[in-house]
Specification:
This protein is of the alpha/beta class. The protein is 22% helix and 20% strand. An eight-stranded mixed beta sheet has the order 4-17-12-5-6-7-18-26, sandwiched between helices. Strands 22-21-25-23-24 form a five-stranded mixed beta sheet, with helices on one face. A hairpin with a 4-residue loop joins β1 and β2. α2 packs across α3 and α2 runs antiparallel to α6.
């Protein structure tokens, strides 16, 4: 840690100079002539400006200024055997006054390993550890505090880092080896971590990428190809993977976090090892994983071998490897949020160093301040409300029997699961803890929403509607009008082409005297109550309603109403549960 450059005493581990203040729950950096002189501080100094921060690699040294006085501990808060908290002689004053950096305790753990990220509250001097990639408009550019958050966690197969050259293709540019769409609920009570198989056959859209000279190059899209080449191949950046995930799931990604093989080794080591359980002994010559049945604590090379193994569990395929990785990530989350980690300054700051050195992120979260904001949104989430799931797939029917190497989406289970994520519906039973006033407000809003869909419905032949494409698939307005006219009897529907602006969610605008038409069209198309937008003035006779198909629209006849329960057959595991790999 950079405490080495801040006058730390010789032979004192820098991590041991951080002290947990039991009153505030904050870690405070105590720098004095000896460890015995360290005392918890009550107040934090003003945060230094970026130009005056010390310890950041490459940062200019700020001119010395008198340190502000820091209130001492209250009576009874001093070290053992020294009640009253009175400082020893020489413990303060002059140029030796303590400079204290306060970091709020608390944590969230996203995990990157070949799919896992540990996100803690970081420090300004760690900014230079981060690698930042400009992905243009591939994401939203910033999460909103009153909206769901969608983060794409990418684990690449790039063999960077000491000792990783011998793993398979040493020349790999880094493909999307493990990819998790991490959806955080609007109310921050729950999250779904959806794994996307790397061998999924999908379409990769055209992708604008930033070049080293500042110019933008658009990489052509590909149809019917493996998902994992959405990164690396032809120079594709993480923004290309973000665009591909939106194409697959219908979910707009806010940010990405990416790491390579080395992150698994350094994060598992920093946390002191990750507990895993094996239902049977393993001896995998390819990954070099050799373990007896039972419980183990893995770190470094062994941890990497565990998440890489394909021939040890299940049917020896990639889908079973995903399941093993999810179990590993859940265990790492539990370890990171454990008391043993959060109350150990050495582990806490080792994790901060390891995580920031491993991370590549988009510019929207490309600083410690922005990551701190994100962690603040997520730190209180209970692990029992974080569910790992895998996008339902089946063997590619285009490949001959005995030579199945790729998969395709199994829409029967995938579509309702994706609708739940799009509709911000939890996969777990979340214990609600809202205040009575908020409960009443929600109940009133639901009552009004349900009322929109109650009452008389107009005959299909009386429904008048203009259809616009505001973000749906190409030609969606035309195909929807054709479906309404030919399959549903809505003859008074018209295709108005592209909408003036794109919208994320499909919406139907109507006047109060068109409510019966709106209800009828909502039933026919499977529109949720939230899609209905009623105006304030009645419409003139023969005036059509306005239907704008948003980014959530998948096709005519595909309901937009999210189911309230996940399909029974999806692969899933809760982050708080320990499961033995078998």
């Amino acid at each position: 840690m950079d405490a080495q450059s801040r006058g730390r005493a010789e032979e004192i581990d820098p991590a041991d100079q951080w002290v947990l203040n039991p009153r505030t729950g904050n870690y405070e950096l105590q720098l004095d002539r000896s460890a015995a002189q360290q005392q918890p501080s009550v107040a934090a100094p003003r945060r230094p400006t970026s130009s005056a921060r010390t310890g950041a690699p490459g940062a200019p040294k700020a001119p010395k200024a008198p340190s502000p006085a820091v209130p001492g501990p209250r009576r009874g808060d001093g070290p053992p055997g020294r009640r009253g908290g009175r400082p020893r002689k020489g413990g303060g004053g002059g140029g030796r006054r303590k400079r204290i950096l306060v970091v709020t305790g608390g944590t969230l753990a996203f995990l990157l390993v070949a799919g896992s990220v540990g996100a803690y509250l970081y420090y300004d001097h760690l900014n230079n550890n981060l690698k930042v990639t400009d992905v243009g408009d591939a994401g939203t550019g910033g999460f909103k505090k009153d909206q769901p958050i969608n983060i794409l966690v990418i684990g690449t197969d790039k063999r960077s880092g000491a000792g990783n050259e011998g793993y398979g293709d040493a020349e790999s540019v880094g493909h999307a080896d493990t990819t998790i769409l991490f959806h955080v609920a609007k109310d921050r009570s729950n999250a779904t971590a959806l794994s996307i198989p790397r061998d999924l056959i999908t379409n990769i859209p055209p992708c604008p990428t930033k070049q080293p000279d500042g110019s933008t190059k658009t990489i052509p899209g590909e149809k019917g190809t493996r998902f994992n080449i959405s990164l690396g191949q032809e120079g594709r950046d993480p923004g290309c993977t973000m665009r591909t995930v939106k194409e697959i799931t219908g979910v707009t990604v806010d940010h990405f976090m990416m790491v390579d093989f080395n992150a698994v080794k350094v994060l598992s080591t920093a946390v002191g090892g990750v507990p895993v359980c094996l239902a049977k002994p393993v001896d995998d010559k390819d990954s070099k994983l050799k373990l007896d049945a039972g419980e183990h604590r893995l770190q470094g090379e062994q941890a990497l071998a565990f998440v890489r193994t394909r021939h040890s569990f299940g049917n020896h395929g990639d889908l079973d490897r995903i399941k093993t990785q999810q179990q590993f990530l859940g265990s790492m989350m539990r370890e990171m949020k454990s008391k043993e980690t959060l109350t150990s300054p050495k582990k806490f700051f080792s994790l901060a160093e390891a995580a920031t050195k491993s991370l590549n992120v988009d510019s929207g979260i490309g600083s410690i301040d922005k990551l701190t904001d994100l962690a603040g949104e997520l730190k209180d989430m209970d692990l029992k409300n974080i569910t790992f799931a895998t996008l339902p797939v089946l063997d590619n029917p285009a490949e001959p029997e005995g030579q199945k190497a790729t998969v395709v989406i199994e829409h029967g289970s995938a579509d309702p699961l994706l609708k739940m994520i799009q509709g911000d519906v939890s996969l777990t039973e979340v214990e609600k803890k809202e205040q009575a006033a908020k409960d009443a407000a929600d109940a009133e809003a639901k009552s009004k929403s349900d009322a929109l869909l109650q009452g008389n419905r107009a005959p299909a032949g009386d429904v008048r509607v203009d259809v616009y494409n505001g973000g749906g698939p190409g030609g969606a307005a035309s195909t929807t009008v054709s479906w309404l006219q030919n399959s549903k009897g809505v003859g008074k529907s018209s295709n108005r082409g592209n909408a003036p602006a794109k919208v994320d969610a499909t919406q139907l605008e109507y006047a109060p005297n068109q409510a019966d038409q709106a209800r009828a069209l909502a039933d026919l198309m499977g529109l949720p109550a939230t899609a209905l937008k009623m105006g304030t003035a009645d419409a003139a006779p023969k005036t059509p309603m306005k239907l704008t198909l948003g980014a959530d629209f998948k096709g005519a006849g595909v309901s937009l109403t999210a189911p309230q329960k996940a399909p029974e057959d999806i692969q899933r595991v809760e982050a708080d549960k320990a499961i033995c790999a078998k």
